[in-house]
Amino acid sequence: MNINYCVLSILYLSLCYGAYKIQFFKPLGNQADLELAEIHKKEYKVYCDTSSWYFRSESELQLSDSSHIAETEMINIPCSLPHRLLLPNSAIWYTRKFLLSDTIILEVNADDGAQVWQDDRRVKSFYGDNFILFPKNGCSVIRIRVLNNAMFGGLQRVLLKVRKGKLFEFFERGANNNTRATFIQAKRDYQINPENDLNIDPAQPISFTFWGDSQGGWQTFNRLIESMNAIPQHFTIGLGDLTANGSNYNQWSSFLKCLGNMPNDLAKYLIAGNHDYDGYYDDLFPELYHLITGHIENPKPYFSWKVNQCLFIGLDGNRNFPLALDTAQLNWLDSLLVSNAGNSVRWRFILLHQPPYAQGWFGYEGDEFIRNWVDKYAEKYKIDFVLSGHVHNYERMSKQYGNHTTNFIVSGGAGGRLEPPESNSNPKMDIVIKEHHFCHISINDSIAHLKVYGIDGKLLDEFIYNKN
Are 456 and 227 in contact (CB under 8 A)? Predict the structure, then answer.
């Protein structure tokens, strides 16, 4: 099909369905992005879609099954892109008509992820946020379901990639073979999510660092790593949003390069966050995360390990939409906490990306799915700490459940852009600090000593918790 004719067809469609302004999109970034730009330049013409889309929230459409979306009428509230709504943990539908005279690639940038339908056919992503649309007689109705796992979410940008040639190999082969092998090797080289419990000399305090939301801020993350390396520690924990886009090979390569600045023999436990699921919202399976953590064949989005008298439990609410701890995960968690492994320890830590309580993100009080579980079971299972990220600052709160105290720590400042100065009115956290940071805990018998360090090792907060 003649490319000029295809472009004219898209322009014609725009005259039928609203003003259409085209601009050439130049991908930015480091070496991998520049290589992608070269492929685009040779094989594709790339246009940014700036025409009107139409939107509705999923609740307004009263859909019991999203597979029946094609049976509904066209959505009729217009919007321009980028478009965002304050609809936490909700799905938003967008529609538009396209006259497709040739096969195109649709790249969808959304908060947090997207699913695509062409008329009544579900279109599966074939690489990250890229979807192939095929030509047909007459107009196609394109529907995009945006899955928002945060507070604000929506459709940010849509790119139309019109083929010059016949090949899509870059997306299927370009980064896969060598890079995948490197990622698999990284688990062994960097001691990522080791399978066995850690045994430490009981005469020594247990020492570890934790941090969250490095999320593409590699320069800041590396500066924090320099300060972490100055502290004797037995392991470190990443609390999710390790990358800004979990389906992007280059993001993970940059993240692993940062981890390479830590001692290779230091155990590194990585929890998945919502951005580590980006590009995987078709089936909610974060392939590259599982590849790096060594669980691609036997996925383990939730796991646990023991260090002497401490039990650490990593959870993942992002494998469900809306966010939730599914039945299988809850059954596993309950069995673990009533088992000998759960009963024989003195300290119990819950680790996950989304916090049950948070104040630093205006309009956000934490996530209900984990707050409900903690409020119900914190005293029964004697949960000492809940460590999380997601909100890009540092927060701390201690809460009494009967005769038991649970400490909530939000550590989401390892590199991503910090939250604005304004905080939410509730809940009332004991402290909120909006600076990049990491946390360090040392545990000696009945005392946990928390220190929080900012850029260049500046002490931001210190807290001592005595179990007795």
Answer: yes
Q: Three-state SS for 158?
A: strand
Per DSSP, the three-state class of 159 is strand
- Among the residue ranges 2-11, 107-116, 150-159, the one predicted with the least confidence is 2-11
> What count of other Cβ atoms lies within 10 Å of the Cβ of residue 213?
31
Handedness of CA 338, 340, 341, 346 (dihedral sign): positive
Structure tokens at 350: 């819950």
Token couple for 326? 């599914």
DSSP 54-88: EEEEHHHHT-S-GGGGGGSPPP-EEE-SS--EE-T
3 state DSSP class of 433: strand
Give the mean pLDDT of the chain: 85
- List beta partners, residue 466: 447
Asked if residues 438 and 411 have their Cβ atoms less than 8 Å apart, the reply is yes
Instruction: Tell me how far apart the alpha carbons of residues 324 and 316 are, in angstroms, rounded to a whole number.
Output: 8
Rounded CA Rg of the chain: 24
DSSP letters along 348-367, please?
Answer: EEEE-SS-SS--SSTT----
How many C-beta atoms lie closer than 10 Å to residue 217's C-beta?
21
Phi, psi of 393 (to 5 degrees): -165, -170
Task: Give pLDDT tens digits for 124-148.
Answer: 887 788 898 988 888 899 999 999 9
Tens digit of each residue's pLDDT (9 = 90 or more) over 203-261: 999 999 999 999 999 999 999 999 999 999 999 999 999 999 998 888 999 999 999 99
The secondary element (H helix, E strand) that includes residue 369 is: helix 368-381
Bond into 316 cis (ω within 30): no
What are 373's two structure tokens?
């579980």
How far apart are the C-alpha atoms of 366 and 369, rounded to whole Å? 9
Pseudo-torsion of CA 386, 389, 395, 397, nearest 10°? -20
3-state secondary structure at position 260? coil
The vertex-105 CA angle with 103 and 111, nearest 5°, equals 150
Q: Is the pTM of this model over 0.90?
A: no
Q: Can you tell me the distance from the alpha carbon of 152 to that of 143, in angstroms, rounded to the nearest whole number?
A: 20
Name the 3-class secondary structure at 450: strand
In whole angstroms, give the CA distance from residue 304 to residue 379: 20
